[in-house]
Every structure is written in structure tokens, then in C-alpha cells.
Amino acid sequence: MNSKNHWLRIAKMLWDLSPLRVLALIVVTVAVSVVPAVQLQLTASAVQTVADAITAGGVGEHGSAVLAVGLLILAVSVFAHLLGVWHGYLDSVLRLHLSTAVGEEVMRKGTRMDLQDYESADSYDKLQRAFQESSGSRIHQLFTDTLGFARELITILSVSAVLFSWNFWVAVLILLSPIPSAIAQMWYGKKMYEIEYGRAADRRRLFYLQYLTTTDHSFKEVRLFQLGEHLIGAYRDQVRRFLKVDRDLTRRQSVSLGVFGLLSVLISAGALVFAMLSTMETGRLGELAGYLQAIGIVQASGHSLLVGVANLFENKLFVSNLFELFDLPERQIRGGNRAFPAKLRQGIEFRDVSFTYPGTEDQVLDRVSFTLPAGNCVALVGQNGAGKTTLVKLLTRLYEPTGGQILLEGVPIEEYDLEELRRNLGVIFQDYIKYELPVRDNIGFGQIEHRADTARVRRAAEASGADSIVDTLPDGYDAMLGRHFENGHQLSGGQWQKVALARAFMRAAPIVVLDEPTASIDAEAETEIFQRFRSIADSSTSLLVAHRFSTVRIADKIIVIEGGKLVEQGTHAELMRLGGHYAYLFNLQAAGYQPEHT
Ligand SMILES: Nc1ncnc2c1ncn2[C@@H]1O[C@H](COP(=O)(O)OP(=O)(O)OP(=O)(O)O)[C@@H](O)[C@H]1O
């Protein structure tokens, strides 16, 4: 996308936020820009009137002229001061509005992306970079830089008009004077930016190393595996590599700034000599004062103008990342118009379902076919990496099968309205979230619109066994969980899992999918939870991924997956009779619970 489009988008965003403020900012910027030229004229007039008064031998008839110029200088200074304050105010308010709007848009974008964007290393990297670099202040900076560019340009043009009206060659020299030092500065800025841009991946690695040594999440392993020194060493090595490059660049910058800056000084001095000669010719002493002031203004504005161009370029690249993020395609997975059935009669069927993760070659599921009859509980078992969670992701439509079909009541699942389908699914994944929020949210998020309904939250907690944990907390359902915020209560792994399970039960959905929901819960509590779950949700159709066979055996049907293929299915008794893979795994686990000599 070209920069013109960027600019139009930013202008539109700002305009939509506050058209009056944008207009006011533009007007104020133009007004602020011409102040230096006016002040230049006034300085020249002030010196000239005073000089004329002295030449005339006293204030006398020149008194009123001196007073008038004095009052004008005062008025312009007050005006310039007030304009400056107003400019700053408008700029800050627009920045605040823009940061808020962009921050919100970035979050919204995050919620609209597909799981695939988060799970593929390539797109995740892109997404994270865009999220990290995309702040509203970058956009605002681009806007401010552009306005700043316009302001300096107007200042230089208006000051030039005054200078050229006095003396052509002095004007040319004064305007040339800032160029050499600004070029040196620009070159350095561009080089530094290129280097930093190329360091993006290394910077993230540094950030990660710091993260590992400074968060509660990694503290235990870092301390007990004694990784601290290793991590600090890796950090130091990387920073030293940066330092070497930066030092070389800074040295070269100093040399070039020294040489080019000298050239700027020489041109300014030349301009001053010319100005003195010209004043001696014209006798207009006021202009000499004006030239002296102009050298300062042009040096500052010219420098800002040229360096501002480099900043503009740099910010434009960052802003491109943000717009790239905004333009990423959303929600490729779409639903149809079909309403979700009032009651499930047939259930769900996986028909020859195959799947390969995007950007990979391996077929993770290979023509898997089975049914999940309405009102039944089906368990999925299989070794790590067999494809169980992938099946859950397909059923919940986080991914689309690359082959075959999933049918709900005999109709392809993609024909159902996606939002409605998801509303009718109660799901908990093995990597569930431990929300650092009150218990009410942790459970109520399962059905956000009933979050305030304590009776309902309590029923869900009772079903998962989380109620006994909540009873011990001082604020009950309003108690804060986790350690990140004040008065938070940290739970054990199993307790967190019961809370997460309550979240899935909160929804009272006709289809419940539990992906290893009880891995951290002790066997006794687990059996109890499932018995209760089956009695509460006996009409729901559920899919249960589990490793513990004591849980699995309560299912109406068990599906055994191996290397992405369905290898066996049946009830616990049927599979045991079959004496195949399930029986082998069951016996293996059962043997683990037996004393060695019995
Ligand atoms: N996002 C992904 N991109 C590419 N491959 C993936 C992705 N997620 C999982 N896989 C691969 O798919 C295969 C099946 O993974 P899946 O998570 O479905 O296994 P699982 O049976 O649930 O295992 P576990 O019991 O360990 O949870 C594995 O080989 C895994 O490496």
C-alpha cells in the first residue's frame, strides 16, 4: 500500500474522531508557522526604529514609533504563546482519542482472526509484531510529523520571503547553512533505523530472555534448574553484539557530524559577513538584527524539516505494519443460515474426515469416520499426538477438514449459523485459561450474559466440584483468583481445572466437548465429577478426550485413534473383549495401579 493511502486512512480516522479539532489543529499549525517570519520583521523594525531615534539624537518624534513596535512585539509574543498552548492541547487530545480508538481496533482484530493465524509460526510472528508495534501513538506520530513538516516548511518559506526582500545572497547562504549537518544527521538516522529494523527477531529474543527471568510463570524452573546465569549470559552476548555495531556507527556519526557540521558553521559565518557588508551598504541596521535572528530560525527549522523527513519515513513503515494487520483477512471460516435444531435426534457424524494443518505436509487425520449419537457420551482415546485435540478443533469449527465432512443431524456442519453453533457448544480445552479475575468471571464467562446470576454460577460450580473451593474463599464468588492482582487467591492445578470445568457446565449446552478436563484432578474427584456430569447432562451429547481409563469406561462409546486413524471403536466391554489396542493400553494403565506382587 502506498503512503498516500496511509495518509488518507489516518486523516479519515482522525476526522471521524473529531473533525472540529482536526480543523482547529490545521489552522493553528499554519498560524504558528508564520509567527517566526512576523517576529523577524518586528525585530528588524525594533532595532531600526531605535537606531533611527539614536541617530536623531533622542526619542523625540520617534517615541510613538518605538512604542508601537514594542506593543506589537508584545501582542505577537502573547498571541504566539497562546497559540502554542492551544496547539499542544489539541495535539494531546487527538493523540489520546486516537490511541484509544486504535488500541480497541487492534483488540477487535485479534478476536476476529482465525485460530490458524495464531497457530502457524509464520503468521503468528507477523501478528505479534503488528500487535506490539501498532500503537495509536505511532499513527499520531506520523500525523504530527507530517504537520510538523508542513509547519517547518511554511516557516522557512515565510522567513525566506522576508530575507529575499532584504538581500538575495545573504538569504541564499542562510538557507543553505543547515543542509550539511542535517544531511549527516539524516544519514545516521536512516542507518540506525535500518539496523534496528533488521534486529526485530533478536529484540524479541532478548525480550523473551528477560521475560523468562522476571515472571512468576517461569520462576520455579529457572530457579531450580539454575538457568539464571545461562539466560543472563545469552542476553549479555546478544546485547554486546548490538553494542559493537552501535559503537562503530556512533563513531562514524561523530566524525561526519564534525565535518559536515563545520561546513554548516562556515556557511553561517559567511552569511553573517555578507549580512554585515550589505548592512554597511544600505545602512539598515535593523536588517542585521533580522539576519542574526534568521540564522537561528533557519538552522532550527531546516534541521527539523530534513530530519523530520527521515522520521516520517520511519514511522510510515511502522504504520504499514499496523495497517497490514488491519487488512489481514478475517474469519475465513464462515457459517450458513441454518438454525441450530431445537433438539438433537440423530447427533453428529464424522464422515471420512481428513486434516492437514495449513502450511504443513503431514496428514494429522486420515479418513476418520464415527458417530456421536444424540444424548450419548463418546470418549476419544489415543497416545500423545494421535489427533484427538485436532478432532475437537474441527468439531468446534476452529479449523475446516481438508477432506470428508462433519454432519450435525445429517446436515453438513458448515451450513449452520456459526455464532449459533458456538452458543450451543460447551467446550473446555486442555490448555484452558486461568483468568486472573474473580470466580464469578472464571465460571460466568461460560455464558457471559448470565454472569451476574449467582444461582446459575453456583449450579455450574456444584457440577464440577468447584463449589467446595469457592466456599473456602472469603469473598465467595466475588473472590479474585490468581496472583497478578491485589487480594488474589492462587489455586492448585486441580482446583483451577474444576473452575474451568464449571465454565463449560455454565453453558448447559446440548453439545459438550471436554478435552482432557480432569488431567490435574485426583481420580476419586474425577469419577464423582463425571457421574454428576452424566446425571445433570444426561440429555446432552458429549465428546470427552481423556487419558485416564477409569473415566473413559463410563462413556457409551469409545473411539481409539492412532496416528490420525481410527483403529477401534465400541463400549469398554466390547473393546476389552476385542483384546486390541484399547485392551492393551487399559491393561498397561491398570498394571500401573497394581502392587508388584499380588
Ligand atoms: N497448529 C498445529 N500446526 C501443525 N501441526 C500441529 C498443530 N497442532 C497439532 N499439530 C500436530 O498434529 C498432531 C496431532 O496433534 P493433537 O494435538 O491433535 O494430538 P492429541 O491426540 O490431542 O495429543 P495429546 O494427547 O498430546 O494432547 C501432532 O502430530 C501435532 O504435532
Strand order in the sheet with the most strands:
6-7-8-3-9-10
Report the sheet with the most strands, covering strand number, pairing sense and barrel closure: 6 strands, mixed
Tell me what portion of residues adopts beta-strand conformation. 5-15%
The CATH superfamily of the largest domain appears as ABC transporter type 1, transmembrane domain
What name does the CATH topology of the largest domain carry? ABC transporter transmembrane region fold
Distance between the termini: 74 Å
What is the count of structural domains? 2
Overall mean pLDDT score?
A: 86
Helix content: 55-70%
How many beta-strand runs?
10
User: Which term fits the overall shape?
Assistant: elongated
What molecules are bound to this protein? adenosine-5'-triphosphate
If you compute it from the alpha carbons, what radius of gyration comes out, rounded to the nearest whole angstrom? 36 Å
Helices and strands: which structural class? alpha/beta
Q: Can you tell me the CATH class of the largest domain?
A: Mainly Alpha
What is the annotated CATH architecture of the largest domain? Answer: Up-down Bundle
Give the low-confidence spans.
none
Seen as an oligomer or otherwise, the chain set is single chain
Number of H/I helices = 22
Protein name: ATP-binding cassette subfamily B protein
Organism: Crossiella cryophila
Main location: membrane
InterPro entries: AAA+_ATPase (IPR003593), ABC1_TM_dom (IPR011527), ABC1_TM_sf (IPR036640), ABC_transporter-like_ATP-bd (IPR003439), ABC_transporter-like_CS (IPR017871), P-loop_NTPase (IPR027417), Type_1_exporter (IPR039421)
